Amino acid sequence: MSVATTRLRLRVSPGSGRASIVGRHGDAWKIRVTEAPEHGRANEAVVRLLANALALPRDAVAIVSGHSGRDKIVELTGVGPALIERRLTSASAPARMRKDRR
């Protein structure tokens, strides 16, 4: 049995005041990270944020395209597209909405 891999398009805003998954941005997901885009710090922050939001180990998240740009493609190992969509949608919901669902 093979392990599921899924590619995901991202639009990243580095140097933001707060790290968050903002929501959809066309066919991509918009993500904000606090780290500056210097020496790979923003890329590492993107990997950490996605791994946390998707409940994946960090080595299951890899940037495969767009290392030096805002538009990136990441490859996620061990999770399918439907679960990714649910978890990112949940992570991008405003805090007030998340409290209401408890």
What does this structure look like?
A hairpin with a 5-residue loop joins strand 4 and strand 5. With 102 residues, the protein is an alpha+beta fold. The longest helix is centred in the middle third of the chain and has 14 residues, at 41-54. The mean pLDDT is 90. Helices cover 31% and strands 31% of the residues. The chain has a single domain, classed as YggU-like (Conserved Hypothetical Protein Mth637, Chain: A, 2-Layer Sandwich). It is built from 3 helices and 5 strands, in the order E-E-E-H-E-E-H-H. A 5-stranded mixed β-sheet has the order 2-3-1-5-4, covered by helices on one side.
Topology:
Layout: E1 5-13, E2 20-25, E3 28-32, H1 41-54, E4 61-65, E5 71-77, H2 81-92, H3 95-100
Parallel strand pairs: 1-3
Antiparallel strand pairs: 1-5, 2-3, 4-5
Offer a concise description of the structure.
The radius of gyration is 13 Å and the shape is globular. The protein has helices at about 40-55, 80-90, 95-100, and strands spanning about 5-15, 20-25, 30, 60-65, 70-75.
- Number of domains in the coordinates? 1
Number of separate helices: 3
Described by the principal axes of the CA atoms, the overall outline is globular
Distance from first to last alpha carbon:
36 Å
- The CATH superfamily is identified as YggU-like
Strand content: 25-35%
The value of Rg in angstroms is 13 Å
Q: Tell me about the largest β-sheet.
A: 5 strands, mixed
Q: Could you give the count of β-strands?
A: 5
Structural class, by secondary structure, is alpha+beta
CATH class: Alpha Beta
CATH architecture call = 2-Layer Sandwich
**What is the helix/strand order?**
EEEHEEHH
- The amount of helix comes to 25-40%
Question: In the CATH scheme, what's the topology name?
Answer: Conserved Hypothetical Protein Mth637, Chain: A
The averaged pLDDT comes out at 90
Poorly predicted segments: none
